[in-house]
Amino acid sequence: MIAQEIAPKILSVGVKDWDRRLFDELIPLPDGTTYNSYLILGSEKTALIDTVDPTKSHELISNLERAGAPAPRIDYVIANHAEQDHSGSIPDILARFPNAKVVTNEKCKGFLADLLLIKNEHFLTIQDGESLSLGDKTLEFHFTPWVHWPETMVTYLKENKILFSCDFFGSHLADSHLFVHDEYKVLADAKRYYAEIMMPFRVAIKKNIEKVETLDVKIIAPSHGPLYDKPRLIIDAYKDWISDRLENIVVVAYVSMHDSTRHMVDHLVDRLIAKGVGVKPFNLTRTDLGDLAMALVDAATVIIGTPTVLAGPHPAAVYAASLVNALKPKTKYATIIGSYGWGGKAVETIKNNLNNLKLELLEPVFCKGHPQEQDFLALDRLADEIADRHKPFMREF
Ligand code: FEO
């Protein structure tokens, strides 16, 4: 990829990873991703803001060499975040530009020393709010912990009013356009990214948005996905996602081995729709976990559906419950439905796997073998209860 100009002497030199389909060996990437890195050519000093995934180091270095005006020289490497998709090429950059200093906060320095074995003499540590002059350009550092790790920070280029936000406001979207081109598509991918990466940190994000809003920002340049030349687009979307607003949606994450649980799910879904409740069912043997995570952002209720396997829930249901538990959506209600043959602890196990969540657990519906009339009646009562609980959100659907 060639470097792309954001403004005079400010270049995007990162890498698009069109083919990557899995992140952290967990998160599906239907649209690939990018590792954005930015070169700021000040009148006296040159800074590189974040690097790229270590698998793409050679592309970053090639981009820097081709962009080199003046001759390729890096004085500072700004590390906004220690995760390797942004920091992993720092050792290669230091090998190529041995006089460069890694500029970051004390906590990030510790992570970089642990993860990448970068030695103490390479670092220049900065404090929250501190500035660094590049001559005619000034970088200002603002600590924004927990977007995504505890050390995360953003860098603000004062003269050009550009916020380099790293993971914050990012999206896993490889796109030929440097700036947002298709707002609908970018917001969908940014919501997916928020759901998978940021949702557990809603409270921290609120504080960090307030901090960012004290700055006069004209461009947000994240380290994944397109840049925003209308910053309100993504800031307002984040404000909505982190708000307490819930939608009249039930997420049903289920797995069924011999159709008993599926019959229950089908019956419940039909009944909920008939009662005016929105439903998003996810068959866990087929679903994209990113789609499931996205649905959790606004859903008022989550239902886990599982058969009983070896005296417990199906492993796919345990996985889904653990994921919900880890992502900490603002969901208010949950329950469990499913079937068993001769006993087991499926309900207790799923309940325990949701123990991070502050929600009301509705009465589970579990049946022996194939669901019968009394089981369908119990599902009808559950649908009535959910519809009643969802009344405050009905207008949102
Ligand atoms: Fe894109 Fe938390 O790394």
Structure characterization notes:
This protein is α/β, with parallel strands linked by helices. The chain has two domains: 4-242, Metallo-beta-lactamase, Chain A, CATH 3.60.15.10; 247-390, Rossmann fold (3-Layer(aba) Sandwich). The protein is built from twelve helices and 24 strands. The protein has a seven-stranded mixed sheet. Helix 4 (106-116) links the parallel strand 10 and strand 11 (123-125). Helix 5 (183-198) packs across helix 7 (231-242). The radius of gyration is 24 Å and the shape is elongated. The two termini are 43 Å apart. It binds MU-OXO-diiron. MU-OXO-diiron is lined by residues 81, 83, 85-86, 148, 167, 223-224.
Explain the layout of strands and helices.
Blueprint: E1 4-7, E2 10-12, E3 15-17, E4 22-23, E5 27-28, E6 33-35, E7 38-41, E8 46-49, H1 57-67, E9 76-78, H2 84-87, H3 90-96, E10 101-104, H4 106-116, E11 123-125, E12 131-133, E13 138-143, E14 153-157, E15 162-166, H5 183-198, H6 202-212, E16 219-222, H7 231-242, E17 247-254, H8 260-274, E18 278-283, H9 289-296, E19 299-306, E20 308-309, E21 312-313, H10 315-327, E22 333-340, H11 346-353, E23 360-361, E24 365-368, H12 373-389
Parallel strand pairs: 8-9, 9-10, 10-11, 15-16, 17-18, 17-19, 19-22, 22-23, 22-24
Antiparallel strand pairs: 1-2, 2-7, 3-6, 4-5, 7-8, 12-13, 13-14, 14-15, 20-21
Helix pairs in contact: 5-7, 5-9, 6-7, 8-12
Bound molecules: MU-OXO-diiron.
